[in-house]
Specification:
Blueprint lengths: L2 H14 L3 H16 L23 H4 L6 H6 L15 H13 L18
Helix pairs in contact: 2-5
């Protein structure tokens, strides 16, 4: 095969196969949707259904989200009784962290930026 054919094949494979990081982010989004959306706003827009539940797009203002991995694995416990305790395995925690990072400004989380986010 000539170089052009090999290069074309490599380019086709790269555009067809999703990047592993995208798979991790999507897994995190699915976990968040399954376990968190009843109380938290988990996308770039909207308010949390439960007023005291922080919007996930604002978590980076409170925490370095990378440091939440241990709490996700050991079980997040909060001071309010409405928050159930969840425990995730390390791969699930990494996926949730990867998703949360897409919600930070400049990370291109694929959603419109909520210009109203600082009002609440």
């Amino acid at each position: 095969m000539n170089r052009l054919t090999i290069s074309t094949m490599v380019l086709m494979l790269l555009t067809i196969a999703p990047a592993p990081a995208d798979d991790v982010v999507e897994a995190g989004r699915a976990l968040v949707k399954m376990y968190c959306t009843d109380c938290h706003a988990t996308e770039m827009t909207g308010d949390s259904p439960l007023a005291i539940a922080p919007r996930f797009r604002d978590l980076h203002l409170r925490y370095n989200v990378e440091h939440l991995a241990e709490a996700l694995v050991e079980g997040i416990v909060t001071a309010h009784p409405e928050m159930p305790q969840f425990e995730f395995d390390p791969d699930q925690a990494a996926a949730i962290i990867a998703y949360l990072k897409t919600l930070e400004p400049g990370q291109g989380g694929g959603r419109a930026v909520d210009t109203d986010q600082q009002k609440h």
